Amino acid sequence: MQRLKFKSMLSPTLQWSFSSPLPPLNFKPCSSLQYSPWSGLQAWRESPLNENRIWGPNGPQSLVLQSPSSVVDNCDSSIGSASSLAELGALVLSTSDPLTKSKLSHLAYSRWRRENLPLGLVSDPPSRPARPLKPELVSPKEIPAPKNSGLPLNAFMLHNLAHVELNAIDLAWDTVVRFSPFSEILGEGFFADFAHVADDESRHFGWCSQRLSELGFKYGDMPAHNLLWRECEKSSDNVAARLAVIPLVQEARGLDAGPRLVQKLVGFGDLRTSNIVAKIADEEVAHVAVGAFWFVSVCQKMGRAPCSTFKDLLNEYNVELKGPFNYSARDEAGLPRDWYGTSSSKMQDKSYKQDKNEKLSLVYDRLASIISMESENSSLKRPPR
């Protein structure tokens, strides 16, 4: 039964029966570029629980005010009665208060690791996560411009990031809960990785919320969009599409946007917030790497080439890739450039042209400097008339 169900979770063009023999993995890559896992993936998996839940004067730090059991009682006593990772994830998804959701996410992951709970399964996951009354969810076009938001620029950008991180908690737990009936095929490592991602995202939301409070604001002080969850709903019946759409598109956009956001915050003069954003962007590499690893794994099980499968899924689910891309961060995460480029040759040609133009610009600047110096020297040596 489980094998038959999983078959329906692949798109019609990619269906393949897990009960049939594996076809030969004769991949035809889009180019000569090959998938290479992030070098830090195993260390991330084996890392101890991260208790750095607050942002101190010098960066992330741990602040233990209560024992774990009393925190559980204060957040939601029902978490103590959950008997599996999937049940814990469902509780997080059913929690509407953002700060409580963030705390429960960490407690759920911590309890699963410390008590070695089974994965379990939830046959009827929540259709969508519980949400607070604020922020009001509107279309992306209705999000106010910074000058009309009622928030200064740094708080405006931080609120947007907090919204992304809160959604990311739910996106990761939904992946754990929704696909829990298929653990025999996907393997428990799949669920361990995405529960770990959810824990990271809960820490990121906590930092953003803390900093917003320091600036005199809170999450919910301006409208937000529901685009991220709509993208998640598209892939609710397809594990390959979920991996393509969420970590490899949505989270990868965070790798692209992170450095630009940091620069804007530095320009605004808010170094504390810029440091928080830089740390979050750095940790997002692991989440994209997890998505790439498991996407390749699923493709191998289907006997499909990851590159062409990725592009087919984005086309089928009408997901748009938007640049500019942070190639160095994407490369580090193990996301091959030919997956998200029109073609490897065009990508390499564009990269070559960019490098060439940058080098030419430096040459021109140096020439201009030399010419200016020569002109000055010439004028100094010229005898007076």
From TrEMBL:
Q: Which SUPFAM superfamilies match?
A: Ferritin-like
The protein's matches in InterPro entries, at most eight in alphabetical order, are given as:
DUF455, Ferritin-like_SF
Would you indicate the residue range of the signal peptide? Answer: none
CDD domains given in the database record: Ferritin_like (cd00657)
Q: Name one Pfam family in it.
A: DUF455
Q: What is this protein called?
A: Ferritin-like superfamily
